[in-house]
């Protein structure tokens, strides 16, 4: 396993829409890792435990999306600006095409890129979060807790949300809580959270969807032409595993791997099994 540290791997890239920050490690073909959303999230925190393994065979890039307190914020909805930031990033570094790993929101970004710019995504790995709720309530328990925190942040609400992210509550350490809290109160991160998960934004989004003729992104997943690995925690309380049914059926080259005793953070809670499954998939 390659030894990867925060300071040695961090990079900055100046673009025409501000600075994009990222972590870089390893050598070989490129691999782009996209983080999820939620209080205190960053690409480094999502993938710091996996980067050393993937860096053995790939030139890894962990991109920090605009508006989450690391890369410079830009105007627009966070999911849309995240997608455009990936293309800006790839263009600036001369990466024509690469496999993409996306956690939750990062998976949605990856799916949208694979639909709209199929020549840029050679393979896709998603970690929960992709598709509609089929049998489970929407919003899910985890998203409701996230909304409660976003509307009025405090540490107790953060702990309740973090606990819903995992199967093993022992993973929610004092160190994790403190790390996430300090990052969650960043003004850019708070603004992004309000746009995505605040009660007012959610109500507006529901009204827009009811009145709009634009189909939801997941209904276009039949256009994802690249090989796709859907990974899911069986005990995911943020994006329950019934959500996997639609992408598993619609994406022509999709396969699904469900990890037992695992919540939303598959890459953390099922670390070794996840790395093994993804490594085999990418090496084919």
What does this 3D model show about the protein?
The protein has a single domain (6-283), classed as Alpha/Beta hydrolase fold, catalytic domain (Rossmann fold). Helix 11 (245-250) links the parallel strand 7 (228-233) and strand 8 (254-259). It has helices at 6-9, 43-47, 51-54, 78-93, 105-116, 141-151, 155-164, 174-184, 187-197, 199-211, 245-250, 266-269, 271-283; strands at residues 10-15, 18-25, 30-34, 59-63, 98-103, 121-127, 228-233, 254-259. It is 42% helix and 17% strand. The chain is an alpha/beta fold. The longest helix has 16 residues, at 78-93. Helix 6 (141-151) runs antiparallel to helix 7, helix 6 crosses helix 9 and helix 9 packs parallel to helix 10.
Summarize this structure briefly.
The chain has 284 residues and is of the alpha/beta class. The chain has helices spanning 6-9, 43-47, 51-54, 78-93, 105-116, 141-151, 155-164, 174-184, 187-197, 199-211, 245-250, 266-269, 271-283; strands at residues 10-15, 18-25, 30-34, 59-63, 98-103, 121-127, 228-233, 254-259.
Short key terms for the protein model shown above:
globular; AB_hydrolase_1; AB_hydrolase_sf; 17% strand; AB_hydrolase_fold; monoacylglycerol lipase activity; 42% helix; 284 residues
Q: If classified by CATH, what would the architecture be? A: 3-Layer(aba) Sandwich
Q: Identify low-pLDDT runs.
A: none
Radius of gyration: 17 Å
What is the CATH top level name? Alpha Beta
Mean pLDDT: 95
Helix content: 40-55%
End-to-end separation = 20 Å
H and E order: HEEEHHEHEHEHHHHHEHEHH
Number of domains: 1
CATH superfamily: Alpha/Beta hydrolase fold, catalytic domain
Q: How is the largest sheet built, in terms of strand order?
A: 1-2-4-3-5-6-7-8
Number of extended strands? 8
Return the structural class: alpha/beta
CATH topology: Rossmann fold
Number of helices: 13
InterPro entries: AB_hydrolase_1 (IPR000073), AB_hydrolase_fold (IPR029058), AB_hydrolase_sf (IPR050266)
Pfam families: Abhydrolase_1
Organism: Williamsia limnetica
GO molecular function, one term: monoacylglycerol lipase activity
């Amino acid at each position: 396993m390659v030894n990867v540290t925060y300071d040695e791997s961090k990079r900055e890239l100046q673009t025409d829409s501000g600075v994009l920050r990222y972590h870089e490690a390893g050598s070989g073909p490129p691999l782009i890792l996209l983080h999820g959303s939620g209080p205190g999230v960053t690409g480094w925190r999502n993938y710091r435990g996996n980067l050393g393994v993937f860096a053995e065979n790939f030139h890894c890039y962990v991109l920090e999306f605009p508006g989450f307190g690391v890369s410079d914020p830009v105007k627009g909805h966070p999911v849309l600006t995240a997608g455009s930031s990936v293309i800006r990033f790839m263009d600036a570094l001369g990466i024509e095409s690469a496999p993409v790993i996306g956690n939750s929101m990062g998976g949605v970004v990856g799916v949208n890129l694979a639909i709209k710019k199929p020549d840029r995504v050679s393979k896709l790995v998603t970690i929960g979060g992709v598709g509609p709720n089929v049998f489970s309530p929407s919003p899910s328990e985890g998203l409701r807790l996230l909304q409660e925190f976003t509307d009025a942040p405090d540490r107790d609400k953060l702990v309740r949300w973090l606990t819903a992210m995992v199967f093993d509550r022992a993973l929610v350490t004092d160190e994790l809580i403190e790390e996430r809290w300090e990052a969650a109160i960043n003004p850019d991160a708070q603004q992004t959270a309000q746009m995505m998960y605040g009660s007012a934004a959610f109500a507006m989004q529901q009204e827009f969807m009811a009145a709009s003729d634009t189909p939801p992104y997941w209904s276009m997943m039949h256009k994802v032409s690249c090989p796709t690995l859907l990974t899911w925690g069986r005990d995911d309380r943020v994006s329950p595993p019934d959500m996997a049914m639609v992408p598993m059926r619609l994406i022509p080259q999709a396969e699904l791997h469900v990890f037992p005793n695992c919540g939303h953070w598959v890459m953390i809670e099922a670390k070794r099994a996840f790395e093994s499954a993804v490594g085999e998939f990418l090496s084919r």
